[in-house]
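Hi Y.,

Following your request, here is the sequence exactly as I used it, all 222 residues.
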Amino acid sequence: MVLKGVIFDLDGVLTDTAEFHFRAWQDLGEKIDISFDRAFNENLKGISRMDSLDRILEHGGKKDVYSIEEKESLAKEKNDDYVELIKEITPADILPGVKKFLDDCREAGLKLGLASASKNGPAILKNLGLTDYFEVVVDPASLTNGKPDPEIFLKGAELLGLDPSECVGVEDAEAGIASINSAGMFSVGVGSPESMKQADLFVEETIELDLDAIIKAHAARG
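Below is the corresponding structure, written out as C-alpha cells. Let me know if you'd prefer a different format.
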C-alpha cells in the first residue's frame, strides 16, 4: 500500500504544550484544593479535557462532588487559563526536526492532517506558523470518543479522502498509539522504547523523524 497521508498529534509531536497544560491544571487544582505533581500530569497526556478533569477529581477524592455543569465550568476555566498561556507560543517552539519533516512530507506530495484532542489546535498551529501545511484539522468537538478510541484518526483519514491503510499516524502518547493502531494505520511513536513499545516504528526525539525510513517501513508492512 502506497503512503499518501500523515496524520499528526500536536502536543509532544509538533510542539511541547505539556508545560502550559500542567500550569493551567495546577492553577485549577489549587482552586479546588487538589494538588498533583508532574508525574501525575503524565497521565493526562493525549486525552480530552473532560477526561483529564475526571482523572484529577478522582485523584483528589472528589470524583462525585461536582455536577456535569460544574465540571464543564471547571474545564472552561482551565481552558481559558491555557489559552492565555499559549499566546506565548511562537515558531521558535516547533520541536527540533519537525519543520524539515513537514517540508519533506509536502515535497513528497503527502496529504497532512492534525488529529489532536486539543480544541486549541488551530490557534496553536497559527502561533507556530504551520497552518498552511495541514489540509485538515479534526475538530475534537465533532467526535463521540476520545483516544485511545480510533475515531479521531479514522476521521482524519476520511477528511483527507484516504483509506486508513494509506496513512501514517504520528503520536507521543500511549493512548494515541493505541488509537492509530486500532484505526488500522501504521503508527510512528515519539518517546521512550517502553512507552512506544506498541508503535510500528518509533524514535526517541522528533529530530529523528525520517520520511524515507517511514515510507520503507510502511511499505514493508504491506
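The chain is about 45% helix and 10% strand.

Thanks again,
Q.
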